[in-house]
# Entry
Amino acid sequence: MKTKAKKLFMSILALILVLTLLAGCSNGSSDEPKNDGGNNEEVNNSGDEKVSSKDTLTIGAFGEAQSLFPANDGKVPGAQFAANVYETLVQMDKEGNIYPVLAETYEQIDDLSYKFVLKKGVKFHNGEELKASDVVFSMKHFCENPRTKSNTIGFDPDNFEIIDDYTLILRTSTPFAPFIRSICNVNLGIFNEKFYNENVDNIDMVACGTGPFKFVEWNQGANIEIERFDDYHGEKAKLKTINIRLIPEANSRLLELETGGIDIMQDVPGISLEQVESNPELSLYTNESVAVTFLALNFDRELLSNTKIRRAIAHAIDNDALRKACLMDAALTANSFLPSTVPGYKADTAAFGYDVEKAKSLLAEAGYPDGISFPLAFYQSSDNRRVGEVLQAMLKEANIDLELSEMETSTYTPFLNSREQFAAITTLNNTLRDPNYTLSKLYSDAQGVGGNRVNYNNPEMDDLLNRASSESDWDKRVELYDEIQELMYEDTVWIPLYSAKVCIGTTSTLRGYTMEFPMNYQNYAACYFAE
# Structure
């Protein structure tokens, strides 16, 4: 066993060296002082500097949106669009405090009811004024849409109530502790009822929100362009145009950032952090993760429905070696089903332990003494490719053969929605910083489109989730979430791999950029350039 472990370790070291050589070409000088971008505030700013006439911000995105309608795309590329074009009733700042956006005021009036008074004079991008009817229509849609259903479990759409044009009441069917946090979700951005009805057959390709930017065009496979909305109800955006370019490969995004082709690079890989940080013309922003990336094994597949098989796969993975080989300092080793930044996190709840011999023994007990094989799907990215290759090497030591299947982002999510996958690399982001937002993906009726990527069906889990979300006493909620995670461990529902940090590279002349959302996307209304 020691010989095989040593062989695997040496292989991983060799892989790191090769990846470093491939991605290490730099136009920046390591002799320059590191930029202080990691504080997540504006850098190199001075009260005497001049504002540049440059009025277009270009973003290098790692993936493409699946839809322009907020409810139909819960992934980062779609959320980036929604965060600038649509708005929610309330929103959460980076400290976790709730503040009103479309709502002027809000209050909980009883255990099940929340009253909202809307701002007056808020315009949609089609010129229609925001009314309570738009909010109720939107929220009812979110409750019915299978893609957002897991985000609205506990809501009671039949008893939503319009009081007048600017006042409404939203209700839950039972007490629901994370209600206000839940409606901060950017995928629950309020849309115009009239516009939706006029465009329902083409709703994925058009947009009409109340945000500081409005939709211009989407060249699929290339870019999305949005521009300043001059009738915005709040402070107007400083920039005229934002161009979101699709650049899947990290090396290509970095080259574009270094040569001025883009102003913001999403998802700087660990192998390139020093290259960005040491370049005086660039700034690096980082934030602790609110996400966990998992190996998701499909319970629908007979082979993977066997708990011993899933546990064998978990024991064949050395999470720490995987993180060091593939993401370096851009991630933390995952040992829990929840990110460490989310309340309710408990260390080692998902620490299965690396043990190749135990993995082989479990396979034999399950009736597969000679091993197993199955395909592993992931969306196109350099990080995912490295993770897939290292997983393939690790599992091979336990007689588990992986066939790697790299897919374009435009086809990956529909593939998972179809429930046809065997295994997939998938990430759950918890921007709302409430355990319910991650764990609710395990509701039985959230399988497939609803975000239950392992297609886990367990009434006991459904009951625990319902009890936890309806519990108002935080300590009692935590106890229930502990119980939920114990059940997840027992059933080997998810296999955590790593918790990636948010690492963003920008041109050093960008101002007004703050990581309000702990994600790869932000609202860019305050951004501008200095000369």
